[in-house]
Amino acid sequence: MPGTHDLWLFAATVFVLNATPGVDLMLTLARTLQHGIRGGMAAAFGVSAGCILHALAAAFGLAALLAASAAAFAIVKWVGAAYLLWLAFGMLRAALRPATAARAAVPPGAAPGAWRLFRQGLLTNALNPKVALFFLALLPQFIDAEAPHKTLAFLFLGAWFVIQGTLFLVAFVLLVAPLGRWRPSAAIERGLQAAGGALFVALAAKLALAERH
Predict the structure, then answer these.
(1) Reported pTM
(2) Rounded to an integer, what is the distance from CA 166 to the centroid of its chain?
(3) N or C: which end of the chain has fewer CB within 10 A?
(4) Rounded distance, CA 133 to CA 176, Å?
Protein backbone atom coordinates (compact mmCIF):
# COMPACT_ATOMS: atom_id res chain seq x y z
CA MET A 1 0.00 0.00 0.00
CA PRO A 2 1.58 3.33 -1.04
CA GLY A 3 2.19 5.61 1.90
CA THR A 4 2.95 2.88 4.45
CA HIS A 5 6.21 1.25 5.51
CA ASP A 6 7.63 -1.55 7.69
CA LEU A 7 4.51 -3.70 7.38
CA TRP A 8 6.39 -6.70 8.78
CA LEU A 9 6.97 -4.75 11.99
CA PHE A 10 3.34 -3.65 12.03
CA ALA A 11 2.23 -7.29 11.72
CA ALA A 12 4.54 -8.31 14.58
CA THR A 13 3.23 -5.47 16.76
CA VAL A 14 -0.37 -6.47 16.09
CA PHE A 15 0.42 -10.09 16.98
CA VAL A 16 1.98 -9.10 20.29
CA LEU A 17 -1.03 -6.93 21.09
CA ASN A 18 -3.48 -9.71 20.23
CA ALA A 19 -1.57 -12.27 22.32
CA THR A 20 -1.39 -10.00 25.38
CA PRO A 21 -4.15 -10.87 27.89
CA GLY A 22 -6.72 -8.11 28.06
CA VAL A 23 -10.46 -7.51 28.12
CA ASP A 24 -11.05 -8.74 24.56
CA LEU A 25 -9.02 -11.92 24.92
CA MET A 26 -10.49 -12.72 28.34
CA LEU A 27 -14.06 -12.22 27.11
CA THR A 28 -13.40 -14.47 24.11
CA LEU A 29 -11.86 -17.10 26.38
CA ALA A 30 -14.75 -16.99 28.85
CA ARG A 31 -17.44 -17.25 26.18
CA THR A 32 -15.60 -20.08 24.41
CA LEU A 33 -15.32 -22.13 27.60
CA GLN A 34 -18.95 -21.40 28.52
CA HIS A 35 -20.63 -21.78 25.13
CA GLY A 36 -18.21 -23.58 22.86
CA ILE A 37 -16.98 -22.61 19.41
CA ARG A 38 -20.24 -20.89 18.48
CA GLY A 39 -20.16 -18.64 21.54
CA GLY A 40 -16.46 -17.91 21.23
CA MET A 41 -16.75 -17.02 17.55
CA ALA A 42 -19.68 -14.71 18.22
CA ALA A 43 -17.72 -12.83 20.90
CA ALA A 44 -14.60 -12.75 18.72
CA PHE A 45 -16.46 -11.28 15.75
CA GLY A 46 -18.03 -8.74 18.09
CA VAL A 47 -14.56 -7.68 19.22
CA SER A 48 -13.52 -7.39 15.58
CA ALA A 49 -16.53 -5.21 14.83
CA GLY A 50 -15.47 -2.93 17.68
CA CYS A 51 -12.00 -2.72 16.16
CA ILE A 52 -13.57 -1.68 12.85
CA LEU A 53 -15.27 1.21 14.62
CA HIS A 54 -11.98 2.26 16.24
CA ALA A 55 -10.13 2.00 12.91
CA LEU A 56 -12.71 4.22 11.22
CA ALA A 57 -12.58 6.66 14.13
CA ALA A 58 -8.80 6.90 13.86
CA ALA A 59 -8.91 7.29 10.09
CA PHE A 60 -11.44 10.11 10.19
CA GLY A 61 -10.10 11.87 13.26
CA LEU A 62 -12.73 10.94 15.83
CA ALA A 63 -10.16 9.26 18.07
CA ALA A 64 -8.34 12.58 18.27
CA LEU A 65 -11.32 13.89 20.25
CA LEU A 66 -10.63 11.37 23.01
CA ALA A 67 -6.99 12.36 23.04
CA ALA A 68 -7.79 16.09 23.20
CA SER A 69 -10.89 16.17 25.39
CA ALA A 70 -10.68 15.00 28.99
CA ALA A 71 -14.47 15.07 29.28
CA ALA A 72 -15.02 12.86 26.22
CA PHE A 73 -12.38 10.41 27.39
CA ALA A 74 -13.90 10.25 30.88
CA ILE A 75 -17.42 9.64 29.58
CA VAL A 76 -16.40 6.75 27.33
CA LYS A 77 -14.12 5.36 30.05
CA TRP A 78 -16.81 5.30 32.73
CA VAL A 79 -19.45 3.86 30.40
CA GLY A 80 -17.01 1.11 29.44
CA ALA A 81 -16.14 0.38 33.08
CA ALA A 82 -19.85 0.24 33.98
CA TYR A 83 -20.47 -2.27 31.20
CA LEU A 84 -17.62 -4.50 32.39
CA LEU A 85 -19.07 -4.36 35.92
CA TRP A 86 -22.45 -5.38 34.54
CA LEU A 87 -20.86 -8.44 32.92
CA ALA A 88 -19.01 -9.20 36.17
CA PHE A 89 -22.28 -8.92 38.13
CA GLY A 90 -23.87 -11.58 35.94
CA MET A 91 -20.98 -13.97 36.50
CA LEU A 92 -20.84 -13.35 40.25
CA ARG A 93 -24.60 -13.81 40.55
CA ALA A 94 -24.25 -17.18 38.81
CA ALA A 95 -21.44 -18.10 41.22
CA LEU A 96 -23.56 -17.28 44.28
CA ARG A 97 -26.61 -19.18 43.04
CA PRO A 98 -27.13 -22.54 44.81
CA ALA A 99 -25.67 -25.41 42.84
CA THR A 100 -28.99 -27.11 42.07
CA ALA A 101 -30.57 -23.82 41.01
CA ALA A 102 -27.60 -22.97 38.83
CA ARG A 103 -27.75 -26.31 36.99
CA ALA A 104 -31.52 -25.97 36.55
CA ALA A 105 -31.22 -22.39 35.30
CA VAL A 106 -28.53 -23.29 32.76
CA PRO A 107 -29.19 -26.79 31.41
CA PRO A 108 -26.39 -28.54 29.49
CA GLY A 109 -26.05 -27.16 25.98
CA ALA A 110 -28.04 -24.00 26.71
CA ALA A 111 -26.39 -20.79 25.56
CA PRO A 112 -27.31 -17.18 24.89
CA GLY A 113 -28.03 -16.26 21.31
CA ALA A 114 -25.09 -15.53 19.04
CA TRP A 115 -26.28 -11.94 18.58
CA ARG A 116 -26.17 -11.33 22.34
CA LEU A 117 -22.60 -12.66 22.59
CA PHE A 118 -21.61 -10.66 19.50
CA ARG A 119 -23.02 -7.55 21.16
CA GLN A 120 -21.00 -8.21 24.29
CA GLY A 121 -17.78 -8.41 22.29
CA LEU A 122 -18.68 -5.29 20.31
CA LEU A 123 -19.52 -3.17 23.35
CA THR A 124 -16.56 -4.42 25.40
CA ASN A 125 -14.17 -3.29 22.67
CA ALA A 126 -15.99 -0.17 21.44
CA LEU A 127 -16.40 1.28 24.94
CA ASN A 128 -12.69 1.04 25.72
CA PRO A 129 -11.16 4.46 24.93
CA LYS A 130 -7.65 3.06 25.35
CA VAL A 131 -8.21 1.04 22.18
CA ALA A 132 -9.11 4.21 20.28
CA LEU A 133 -6.00 5.97 21.56
CA PHE A 134 -3.92 2.91 20.69
CA PHE A 135 -5.08 3.11 17.07
CA LEU A 136 -4.33 6.81 17.03
CA ALA A 137 -0.85 6.24 18.45
CA LEU A 138 0.14 3.10 16.52
CA LEU A 139 -1.09 3.59 12.98
CA PRO A 140 0.67 6.92 12.24
CA GLN A 141 4.04 5.31 13.02
CA PHE A 142 3.66 3.17 9.88
CA ILE A 143 2.43 5.93 7.56
CA ASP A 144 4.91 7.95 5.51
CA ALA A 145 4.99 11.64 6.31
CA GLU A 146 4.78 12.37 2.58
CA ALA A 147 1.92 9.94 1.93
CA PRO A 148 -0.47 11.61 -0.56
CA HIS A 149 -3.58 9.96 0.91
CA LYS A 150 -3.12 9.55 4.64
CA THR A 151 -6.77 8.62 5.22
CA LEU A 152 -6.46 5.72 2.79
CA ALA A 153 -3.25 4.64 4.52
CA PHE A 154 -5.08 4.75 7.88
CA LEU A 155 -7.91 2.65 6.45
CA PHE A 156 -5.47 0.14 4.96
CA LEU A 157 -3.62 -0.35 8.26
CA GLY A 158 -6.91 -0.47 10.17
CA ALA A 159 -8.23 -3.18 7.82
CA TRP A 160 -4.96 -5.11 8.24
CA PHE A 161 -5.28 -4.84 12.03
CA VAL A 162 -8.89 -6.08 11.99
CA ILE A 163 -8.20 -9.01 9.64
CA GLN A 164 -5.10 -10.16 11.51
CA GLY A 165 -6.81 -9.74 14.87
CA THR A 166 -9.87 -11.69 13.71
CA LEU A 167 -7.72 -14.56 12.42
CA PHE A 168 -5.88 -14.64 15.75
CA LEU A 169 -9.11 -14.80 17.77
CA VAL A 170 -10.58 -17.47 15.50
CA ALA A 171 -7.45 -19.61 15.97
CA PHE A 172 -7.58 -18.93 19.72
CA VAL A 173 -11.21 -20.06 19.92
CA LEU A 174 -10.48 -23.27 18.02
CA LEU A 175 -7.48 -23.93 20.28
CA VAL A 176 -9.27 -23.55 23.62
CA ALA A 177 -12.72 -24.88 22.61
CA PRO A 178 -11.86 -28.54 23.43
CA LEU A 179 -11.36 -27.50 27.07
CA GLY A 180 -15.03 -26.55 27.23
CA ARG A 181 -16.11 -30.17 26.71
CA TRP A 182 -15.00 -30.95 30.23
CA ARG A 183 -18.02 -30.77 32.52
CA PRO A 184 -16.78 -29.62 35.96
CA SER A 185 -18.57 -30.22 39.22
CA ALA A 186 -21.05 -27.62 40.44
CA ALA A 187 -18.54 -26.28 42.98
CA ILE A 188 -15.79 -25.90 40.39
CA GLU A 189 -18.22 -24.31 37.93
CA ARG A 190 -19.29 -21.75 40.54
CA GLY A 191 -15.63 -21.11 41.39
CA LEU A 192 -14.83 -20.45 37.74
CA GLN A 193 -17.77 -18.04 37.49
CA ALA A 194 -16.55 -16.24 40.62
CA ALA A 195 -13.01 -16.03 39.27
CA GLY A 196 -14.29 -14.70 35.96
CA GLY A 197 -16.46 -12.14 37.72
CA ALA A 198 -13.54 -11.00 39.89
CA LEU A 199 -11.35 -10.70 36.79
CA PHE A 200 -13.89 -8.48 35.05
CA VAL A 201 -14.21 -6.32 38.18
CA ALA A 202 -10.42 -5.89 38.09
CA LEU A 203 -10.50 -5.03 34.39
CA ALA A 204 -13.27 -2.50 35.02
CA ALA A 205 -11.20 -0.90 37.79
CA LYS A 206 -8.16 -0.79 35.51
CA LEU A 207 -10.20 0.93 32.81
CA ALA A 208 -11.75 3.36 35.28
CA LEU A 209 -8.28 4.36 36.53
CA ALA A 210 -6.85 4.74 33.01
CA GLU A 211 -5.46 8.15 32.14
CA ARG A 212 -4.94 9.84 28.79
CA HIS A 213 -1.33 9.85 27.53
Answers:
(1) 0.69
(2) 11
(3) C
(4) 30
